[in-house]
Amino acid sequence: MTGMTWTIAPEPYDSPVAAALWRAYYTEVSDRWYLLHAGHRTDPGELEREIAAEAGAELAAPTGQLLVGWCAGEAGGSAGVRLIDADTAELTRVFVREPLRGRGGAPLLVAAAEDAARALGARRIVLDTRDDLVEARALYARLGYAETAPHNDDAYAEHWFRKELAVS
Which of 10, 68, 100, 110 has the least CB density, counted as fewest CB within 10 Å? Predict the structure, then answer.
């Protein structure tokens, strides 16, 4: 079912809505990694420690923003941006809840994040992802992101992307 109406709006990184989406996102990507590499889901204690450790404060003004996509009255997904230098923003936490995937939310969230990055003064946007997140890599390629050299040393990053932001 495509063509559902999405509304994208800023959300405080520490709101209950943001926390629920962060938990869903982190659980999914962590479990996916552990199932692929170790044959089991994330240890619940580790999951709780990592969720708590990455609260998202970097996605707050004046150098960041978290966006939530709402679809059919549900908080369906998120995307965040944070400045990593005066001209560069990092795209992070791009996530759409499984029941709402394929309904147009991810491109809208990324476009809204790009607009937020421009508003923060960024001229380019970068991101990293993993080999197993093939859907994400395909999305970024479709949206004009080019694979590039690493911009960080994240232990789980295997692909880095960049996009120049046109002035709107």
Answer: 10
